[in-house]
Specification:
The structure is a single chain. By secondary structure, this protein is mainly α. It has two domains: about 210 residues, Hypothetical protein, domain 2 (Endonuclease III, domain 1, Orthogonal Bundle); about 55 residues, Arc Repressor Mutant, subunit A (Orthogonal Bundle). It has a three-stranded antiparallel β-sheet, with no helix packed on it. Helix 1 packs across helix 11, helix 2 crosses helix 3 and helix 13 crosses helix 14. It is globular.
């Protein structure tokens, strides 16, 4: 580990970090886990109000486990990728049933929870329990791509070389140093080493940056998502809004007014059912999961 590099990044972080509730001293593992679920593919500005409302309603895993999946989907609202709400509800149920309501602290047990992959497990273990793990999110991977590999953008998925690099750069014990280093890198990528307009003049490690040293060569841009207007994603959002706004099951015809294309509507409804976000009931009724009496 380059101690000078750690010092520069962490010193910058201490001066420039945002006051985010999930980073405050004393934040419990459940609150950290909720933030990590919500922050997947979603900007901080959108997550903040949803995060605060969620924890106000369900401050512990056991509280969410007592709710229905429909409650979780409704509370998730328009945050996007609503399957995360279902996975979080499933995880809360397992945590309550098998872990006494406490989020497990081992990577192995965390990985067994629905919706928890290698990144989320490392993030919860690091930020909630102060353990020494490499935390490789999109922002960190972009910082490493530029700083070490001299590339404008990282590959679409993390490689073994990236993982090995991240682990080699972890500060030594005490483990809390590694957690601070990881969150500082995340903040550097979010605020300075951004994807579109990096503020290299404000970067604390600009003199060590391989990409800058090479003259900032252009790289292949990450693949962009298909346009949202008219897409199945927009249609899903409209149809879920109908279900969230209803007190219970609705007739399938209730979706007709929210989306004009019948064929697309039918395809999207089938996908919602397949994904577990909707349930088909007798009488041509549709409901959120758990939003009916079996």
């Amino acid at each position: 580990m380059n101690v000078n590099l750690e010092h520069q990044v962490v010193a910058w972080y201490q001066m420039n970090r945002r006051d985010l509730p999930w980073r405050r001293t004393g934040t419990g593992a459940w609150a950290v886990m909720v933030s990590e679920f919500m922050l997947q593919q979603t900007p901080v500005a959108r997550v903040l109000p949803a995060y605060l409302d969620w924890l106000s309603r369900w401050p512990a895993a056991s509280a969410l486990a007592d709710a229905t999946p429909a409650d979780a989907v409704r509370q998730w609202g328009t945050l996007g990728y609503p399957r995360r709400a279902l996975r979080l509800h499933e995880a809360a149920t397992i945590i309550t049933r098998w872990h006494g309501g406490t989020v497990p602290n081992s990577i192995g047990e965390l990985r067994k929870l629905p919706g928890v992959g290698s990144y989320t497990a490392a993030a919860v273990a690091s930020f909630a329990y102060g353990q020494r793990h490499a935390v490789l999110d999109t922002n960190v991977r972009r910082v490493f791509a530029r700083l070490v590999f001299g590339q404008q953008y990282p590959a679409s998925s993390a490689s073994a070389a990236e993982q090995a690099l991240a682990e080699s750069l972890l500060p030594p014990e005490p483990a809390g140093r590694a957690a601070t280093w990881s969150v500082a890198l995340m903040e550097l990528g979010a605020l300075v080493c951004t994807a579109a307009r990096p503020a290299c003049g404000a970067c604390p490690v600009a003199l060590s940056c391989a990409w800058l040293g090479l003259g900032t060569p252009a790289g292949a841009r990450p693949r962009r998502a298909a346009p949202y207007p008219g897409s199945d994603r927009e249609c899903r959002g409209r149809m879920l809004a109908v279900l969230r706004g209803a007190p219970g099951p609705v007739p399938a015809a209730a979706f007709d007014a929210c989306w004009p294309a019948a064929a697309q509507r039918g395809r999207v409804l089938r996908s919602l059912i397949t994904d577990g976000l909707a349930v088909s009931l007798p009488g041509n009724l549709i409901a959120l999961p758990g939003d009916f009496t079996a």
